[in-house]
Each structure stands twice: as C-alpha cells, then as structure tokens.
C-alpha cells in the first residue's frame, strides 16, 4: 500500500527550535565567532583561525587555573561523597526524626549561591565574623584574605556545608529502597556491619551515587559565585578557578578571543566527563537487567 | 538441631492490646519436633509470616516464650538462634559470585577454608549450579537467584531449623516442582527441621510431614495431610484443603442422625447434645449421585477435570460439590446424593465435635 507522504508535523517542532536557538545555539555561536576572530572594536573582525585555541592550550595561566580546578573538584568529591554516605547511613529511617533530619539537610540546598558566599565571607572575617574572630581569640592564625591555605580551607568547608546534603539525600533515597529482607538475611548469615555496607548497601546505592558524583563534579568544576564573593580569586591567584579566570579575561581585560576559545574548551571538558559518567551508568544498568 | 517449643505464645502489633481482635497471633501452645518437615498453610494475612518471624527472631513476641530445645531464645538475636531463612524474594549479594554467595554464611563464622570449599561444591551440586559457580550473581534470572538463596540457607550443617517464607513465589511452575522435590530430598538427607510457609495447599501437602493450618491468627489444626483430609478440625481446614473443599450444611444433630434441609443423614457415630451453630461436613470425594436414596440436589453443571468429574450442584440453595468417577453415566434421574457412612463430620461453631459409639 502506498503511504501518503506528509511531513508537515515537522512544523510543530519549530517553536522549540526557535526557543532553543535563541537561548543556546545563537549565544554559543557568538562565542564560536569570537574564538576564531580577532577584533579591535567597532565590529571589525579579523580571521585568526585556531590561533586563540593554540595560545590558550599552551598558556601557563590556564594550566594553573585548570590545576587548581581539578584539585578543588577532587578534594570536594573526596570529602563530600564519603561524608554524604556516612550521614545517610546514620539518618533515622522513619518517624518524626526522619522528617526532621530531611528538612534540616535540605536547608543549605535552598540558599542562593551568592548568599552562601556572603554568609561565609562575613562568618570568616577576623574583625566581625563569628568564626574568624573566635579563631583569633583562641590564638589560631586564620585569615582567608591573605593566606592561601586559609582561603582554600574556607572555600572547601563552605562547599562541604552547602552540598554534602545533596549526596546524603540521594544516598538516603537509595538506602530506603533496599527491602528489609536483605538486612534480615545478612543478620542470619552473621554478616558484619562492614559486610552489610560493602555487599548490600553500596551495590544498591551505586546508581544514585553515580548521579551524586556526576552532579557534584559538574557543579564544583563550574564553581564561580561563592569563591568570587569570598575571596575574589585571591589571595594572589590561589583561588582563581577556571570560571573566575574566564570572567577576568573576558570582562576584566576584554580579551574576547582567548576567552571565547577557552570557554569552548572548558565546555568540551565538562561534556566529555559527563558523557563518560553517562556511559558508565548505562552500562551498569544493562549489566543489572541482563 | 533442636525441638522448637512455643509456650503460650501470642503476638500483637499494638502496644496495649485490648480485645482478641488486636492480636495478630492468638495464644498458642505447640511443640515442633526436631527434624520434622512442617508446612505453615493459610490464606494471606492469617499470621503465618508473623509466626515465622517470631521463630527466626526478627519479631519479638509480645506474650509467651519460644524455646529451642531447653534454651529460652525469646530475647535472643536472630544470629544467636542459629537458624537459616529463605525469603519470598531472592536475596543474593549482587556483587559476589555464586561461589562467594554460598560461602558467605560459613566464612562469617570463621570456618576452615578447605571445609568451605568442599561444602560449597556439595551444595552447588545439589542445586545444580556447579557450572556457574564463578559467575556474578547480578546477571542471573530470578529462579537462579532463588536457588542461590535456598543454597545459602542449606549450606550450614548445624542449623537449628531452616525456615522458608513462600520461597517458590517467583519460580516458574515446572521449576517449582523440581525445587520442591529437591527440598524434600535434602530434608531426608540431612534431617534439618524445616518450616515452610505457603498459601498453596499442593506445596504444603507434598512437602510436609505435618501441615499446620492457620486461620485468623490461630493454629486451627496441626496434622498429617491424611488427618487434614479425613478429619478437618475446623470448617476452615475442610474448606481450604481439598479441591473442591468440603461441603458444609446447616444441621441439627441428635444421637447418630442429623437433620438437614433436605432430609436425614446417618452420621456413623453417636453425638451428645451439640450446642452453638451446628453444621455437618462431607468431602465431595465421599458423595455419590444416585437415582434412589439420599438427599435431593439440583445439578448446575459438570466439569471434567480428566481423572474425574466435578458435579457442581445445589442443595437447599447452597452450593454442593460431588466428585463423580470417570466414565460413570450421569442420567437425568440422578437427583439425589448419598454419603459414605462414617465420613461425615459434625461442627459446632466451626470446631469439630468428636463422635462416640452409636
């Protein structure tokens, strides 16, 4: 039988295409445009090919920022993931205290990023901040504005405070879905607490845990607001992460070409890592159902 | 191994039970023989799983004591009771191989490695999994996983009892039969006390030496399959065991005769004064259609199930089933039913009344 060819349905997709074009594709294309051109203003562009990419990929300033960024994400994940699991394991499973803990844990997640930054900026100040002033009174030399280690400790503590809840809540959801029979069987098998965690809880949590790691990686790798508010990238360049450096380059120095080339590479790195995570997750899922 | 004694055991999920209705398990007093194969049979929500969890130590009974041998284990943890339990759904350790799964309970008890290896191979052979011992448990089918659970329950030789909580629910019908036969064989081989919870009478009757029928939180009868069939102690047992179940009729009993809606029935035994709601019960197997003697029935339809036929009839407006042998001609004049003498049971308020001499 001859089928009627009618592809008019494609027009129904048009509104979405227009919206996506304006919200994502066209802005991204401007960045692509900047990254392959040089300009001295007045909308005059000179073709520069891959010049900016070459310059950026070998720039020491970028290498340093990337190094700091990787270190930051690694430290964040190394603290927040085990801590989140630990908290989830120790949260009450039902009753009033379960709801209480859930609300308490969700609170930091509800605070806007710049407010979190401001809270910690003031909290840590030696002159008026509760934390900074107490430390000074105890004779501990703590000042995040002129000591690189103090600045790192402050930002990492802040991020742990802000985001560990997310990991904990996801793990908690994973733990709640384990049928009671598994724990009963483990008790009958005389499994130790560690075995229960290693062979029951961890495997059953692995799915949500991967999502938690992915989310925390992406967020920490793109962190901007909080360090910008607390340290502004200082002291020196010690807390200048990729996005802070990017903004400095683009809006501070108006080096639009290098900044554009750099942001495209930045975007590709995140895309690559997310893709790897996604692949790992789906392979695990397939192994589960096979 | 030990004999299990339930002494004045009762359980309520409410902190302060007021009436009998609040009890999930009504008071009971039973002894489960060492090495017996028991089946706990009853419809959903009758308290079978509660009773099983009390024996395994997952639930602490609100009243009464549980004894293993002479030892009071009412307050003992599950691990201290040294029992094995197989659950309704397969519980396997996904990240371990089949071998590690089977070895896990032994390893946790610090057994000797050579002994573990030998024992695991023996169990693997029994459940037919020698070929896939080194595979991860994660990718296996539900019935393979359940076999691992069964194997893990069986792997310890010194357990006091092995408890099964409807273990064959997720298994394909043909595998069910095979596994049940294997369980039976294992029981004969090792002589563990086995308690098997099910709501399937075929499963219970083929597996167990003694079937414990539960109804509404109470053990209504504990007996061999024959006893359950021939002399049901409670109308529920009559109705639940057998296919179709026992026919029950409202009656008034005097001496060795009962008056029912259609006429009089000889009971084959003598009864004193029976108080309360009186019923008589007769198995469809002990009824036969006749043209002359017996009580009048109206036949509604006849089902041929192969080995015999089930006659679905009505007596005084109540459904009444009769089993007719294969090949017997059922004519239009066969409107009466006769009972085999001595196979009629009398019930007062649902409980069986024992008859005396005529």
What report would you give on this structure?
The complex is a heterodimer of chains A (290) and B (358). By secondary structure, chain A is mainly alpha-helical. Chain A folds into two domains: 14-49, no CATH class; 63-289, MetI-like (MetI-like fold), CATH 1.10.3720.10. Chain A has helices spanning 14-35, 51-57, 60-90, 96-106, 113-123, 130-137, 148-176, 180-188, 193-221, 225-230, 242-252, 256-289; strands at 37-39, 45-47. Chain A has a two-stranded antiparallel sheet with strand order 1-2. The radius of gyration of chain A is 24 Å and the shape is globular. The model of chain A has no long low-confidence stretch (mean pLDDT 86). Chain B folds into two domains: 4-240, P-loop containing nucleotide triphosphate hydrolases (Rossmann fold); 247-353, Nucleic acid-binding proteins (OB fold (Dihydrolipoamide Acetyltransferase, E2P)). Helices cover 25% and strands 34% of the residues of chain B. Chain B has helices spanning 48-56, 78-81, 98-108, 113-126, 142-154, 173-190, 201-207, 225-230, 235-240, and strands at residues 4-12, 23-32, 37-41, 63-68, 71-72, 84-86, 162-165, 194-198, 210-215, 218-223, 247-250, 252-260, 263-271, 278-282, 287-290, 295-296, 298-304, 308-315, 318-325, 336-339, 345-348, 351-353. A six-stranded mixed β-sheet of chain B has the order 6-7-8-3-9-10, sandwiched between helices. In chain B, strands 2-1-4-5 form a four-stranded antiparallel β-sheet, covered by helices on one side. The longest helix of chain B is centred in the middle third of the chain and has 18 residues, at 173-190.
């Amino acid at each position: 039988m001859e089928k009627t060819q009618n592809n008019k349905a494609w027009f129904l997709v048009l509104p979405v295409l227009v919206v996506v074009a304006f919200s994502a594709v066209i802005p991204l294309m401007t960045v692509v445009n900047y990254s392959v051109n040089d300009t001295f203003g007045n909308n005059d562009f000179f073709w520069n090919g891959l010049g900016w990419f070459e310059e950026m990929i070998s720039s020491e300033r970028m290498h340093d920022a990337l190094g700091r960024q990787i270190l930051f994400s690694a430290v964040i994940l190394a603290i927040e993931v085990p801590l989140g699991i630990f908290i989830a394991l120790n949260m009450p499973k039902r009753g009033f205290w379960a709801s209480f803990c859930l609300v308490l844990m969700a609170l930091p997640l509800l605070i806007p990023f710049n407010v979190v930054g401001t809270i910690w900026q003031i909290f840590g100040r030696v002159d008026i901040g509760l934390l900074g002033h107490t430390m000074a009174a105890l004779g501990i030399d703590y000042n995040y504005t002129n000591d690189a280690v103090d600045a790192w400790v402050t930002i990492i503590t802040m991020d742990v405070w802000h985001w560990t809840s997310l990991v904990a809540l996801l793990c908690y959801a994973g733990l709640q879905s384990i049928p009671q029979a598994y724990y009963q069987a483990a008790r009958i098998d005389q499994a130790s607490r560690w075995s229960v965690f290693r062979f029951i809880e961890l495997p059953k949590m692995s799915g949500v845990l991967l999502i938690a790691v992915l989310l925390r990686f992406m967020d920490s790798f793109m962190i901007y607001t909080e360090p910008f508010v607390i340290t502004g990238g200082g002291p020196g360049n010690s807390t200048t992460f990729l996005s802070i450096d990017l903004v400095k380059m683009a809006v501070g120095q108006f080096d639009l070409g290098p900044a554009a080339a750099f942001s495209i590479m930045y975007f590709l790195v995140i895309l690559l890592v997310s893709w790897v995570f996604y692949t790992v997750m789906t392979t695990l899922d397939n192994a589960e159902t096979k | 191994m030990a004999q299990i004694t339930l002494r004045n055991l009762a359980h309520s999920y409410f902190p302060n039970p007021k009436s009998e209705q609040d009890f999930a398990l009504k008071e009971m007093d039973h002894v489960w023989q060492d090495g017996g194969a028991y089946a706990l049979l009853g419809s959903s929500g009758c308290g079978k799983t509660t009773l099983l969890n009390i024996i395994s130590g997952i639930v602490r009974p609100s009243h009464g004591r549980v004894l293993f041998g002479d030892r009071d284990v009412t307050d003992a943890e599950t691990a201290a009771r040294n029992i094995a339990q197989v659950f309704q759904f397969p519980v396997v350790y996904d990240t371990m191989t089949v071998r590690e799964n089977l070895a896990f309970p032994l390893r946790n008890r610090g057994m000797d490695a050579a002994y573990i290896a030998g024992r695991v191979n023996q169990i693997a052979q029994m459940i037919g999994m020698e070929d896939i011992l080194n595979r991860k448990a994660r990718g296996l089918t539900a019935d393979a996983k359940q076999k691992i659970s069964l194997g893990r329950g069986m792997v310890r030789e010194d357990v006091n009892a092995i408890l099964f909580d409807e273990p064959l629910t997720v298994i394909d019908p043909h595998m069910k039969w095979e596994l049940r036969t294997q369980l039976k064989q294992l029981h004969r081989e090792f002589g563990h006390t086995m308690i098997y919870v099910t709501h399937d009478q075929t499963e219970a009757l083929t597996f167990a030496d003694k079937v414990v029928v539960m109804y509404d939180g109470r053990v209504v009868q504990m007996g061999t399959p024959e006893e359950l069939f021939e002399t049901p102690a409670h109308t529920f047992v009559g109705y639940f065991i057998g296919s179709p179940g026992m026919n029950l009729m409202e009656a008034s009993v005097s001496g060795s005769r009962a008056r029912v809606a259609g006429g009089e029935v000889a009971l084959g035994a003598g009864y004193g004064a029976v108080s309360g709601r009186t019923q008589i019960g007769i198995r469809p197997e002990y009824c036969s259609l006749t043209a002359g003697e017996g009580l009048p029935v109206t036949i509604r339809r006849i089902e041929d199930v192969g080995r015999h036929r089930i006659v679905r009839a009505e007596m005084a407006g109540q459904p009444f089933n009769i089993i007719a042998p294969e090949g017997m001609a059922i004519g239009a004049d066969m409107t009466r039913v006769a009972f085999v003498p001595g196979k009629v049971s009398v019930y007062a308020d649902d409980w069986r009344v024992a008859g005396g001499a005529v």
